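Notes from the pairing session

We agreed to fold both candidates in a single pass and log them together. This is the raw record for the first candidate, unedited. Please don't reformat it; downstream parsing expects exactly this layout.

Candidate A
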Amino acid sequence: MQKLHIYIVENNPLIAFALKKMLLNIGHNICGIAECYNEAVKDLRVMNVDLVITDIMIKGEENGIDLANYINHHLHIPFIFQSSTTSADIINLANQTHPNAFLPKPVSKSEMIKALAMIAA
């Protein structure tokens, strides 16, 4: 599998750390971590990123769905949602952004590997 440069958007530092550790153990690079939309957009405009993994509920006024829309309109890179939300309305809105995967929290290593394999192929 190709080594990906992955950017994580997650407002919970423990979850961000766990994701980072998991992805590094799988063999990918972490090129950045943000807690909010504005920080992520600022970084993503200038970084070489192969994939964004974002939570839906992040710090600030904009959420992960807003970030996905920004990515679709300006950056055109793959992204994965990872979220603990169970709201059908929010999940439907998220799916309208056409994520490469939607992984429920807590994200299992096997599910992450499957999602990444489809992107790195």
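Candidate B (folded immediately after A)
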Amino acid sequence: MTVVRLLKHLFAACALLTGTTLALAQTYPDRPIKLVLPFPAGSATDGVSRFLADELRKSLGQTFVIDNRTGADGIIAAQAVKAAAPDGYTLMVSTNSAHGSNPALYNTLPYDPEKDFEAVAGVMKIPQMLVVRKDFPSNDVASFMKLAKERGAAGKPLSLGTGNTSSRIAAELLKTAGSLELTIAPYRGMPQVMTDLVGGQIDFTFSDPFAAAGFINGGQVKALGVTDASRVQLLPNIPTMTEAGFQNVALVSFVAVFAPAKTDPAIVKRLNAEINKILASPHGKEYIQKMGASTMSMSPDQLRSFVSSEIARYGQLISAAGIPKK
């Protein structure tokens, strides 16, 4: 076969492949799509996933089914999506747990957050809030830190509930910043943590604004500080930890969508375009803002680079906080 004939065959094959890919993207989706989540109903991830599911149903004409696979810092959900067919019908709405901090928290992971997934689209960034029970004797971060120090020195450390990796890391950063002794109780999710905080079973937690706002506005708990560079528009009266003098207690989480590795690029591109369109709409911006978060529109390549940088950043945070690997 001459070089010219070989090139013709190659061009024909590429054209056929391109045509097949375009046709696939145009017909996708033709059946319901599953969104696998690492956190329970009532969490910020669950809330924004249900919002996206409803908006994508309108734009793509197919049902999006929510599948909450909770536990193990997102490992259970990540394994389920890793093992799914790469056809665009199983997606993961993930966070900085499964796709950020887990490599630094676990000696062995049953998945690779970069190699086993296709980055689809960013969704939002959301900070943590230092929240205490309503009868806690402090109303600001400075007096909270003073009391926490005194209680630890007296052998009666404050009790903290954590519902995800972000709340745990924020707590460890707080411990380091104030040289505190704390009793830490892990929960399966923030809704359960907030229930016990309202009931007075624990002294405080770090929660995303979405999970805590209703309880804060209802006077059932008190918020003292926000782990972001600026205040949250949802709760503008709550100062940042930096304003309170603890700039090292800074942590912003993220939510993003991923597909199994080797999912067709045309499907990834279409999903990315649809999700970014939702986030750019007035309705999308308003919803994310009401969650106490900010939108995180990205291309697949940008999200892939972002995940790599977050894995490195969380490795440094976890090391600085002294959290041992599991």
